[in-house]
Design goal:
By secondary structure, the protein is an all-alpha fold. It is built from five helices and no strands.
């Protein structure tokens, strides 16, 4: 188990190796960064698999059955992780969408003030992604 933590620390430190060398170009730095993020994501996935390497319910219950003792089983934990990921990734997507649409909207409004309504609609459409992610997380939590 300690090798997983060493791997996670090494994967997190890997992108900073590109900043140490003075003869590294922009392409090499980007390649180091992308490969470091990929290795880190894979290590997190492996750590998650090893962390949940056991029975889903301790007393012989099925994964979907309610646990009368009040303990949270691994199935419930994975459902909560899924709910958090759906909201978090949707909000990241919203941030990317709003960043590009809002900057374009500001540029369009500065040239023609009559485009305010159309620009506002485009920015609000990008915000809808976060609402969908939140809705999915509510559905996941209610299914538990």
């Amino acid at each position: 188990m300690p090798f997983i933590f060493i791997g996670l620390i090494a994967a997190a430190a890997f992108p900073f190796l590109a900043l140490i060398g003075k003869k590294t170009g922009v392409k090499r730095k980007k390649r180091f960064l992308v490969s470091g993020i990929t290795v880190f994501a894979l290590m997190v996935a492996v750590a998650t698999v090893f962390m949940f390497n056991g029975a889903l319910a301790t007393s012989g219950e099925t994964a979907g059955a309610a646990n009368p003792s009040g303990e949270i089983s691994v199935g419930h934990g994975l459902a909560l992780i899924g709910a958090g990921l759906s909201t978090g990734l949707a909000c990241v997507g919203t941030g990317v969408g709003v960043a590009s649409s809002a900057s374009a909207a500001i540029g369009a409004i500065s040239e023609d003030e009559n485009l305010f309504g159309k620009s506002l609609i485009m920015v609000v459409m990008a915000e809808g992604i976060a609402i969908y992610g939140l809705l999915v997380s509510f559905l996941i939590i209610n299914a538990i």
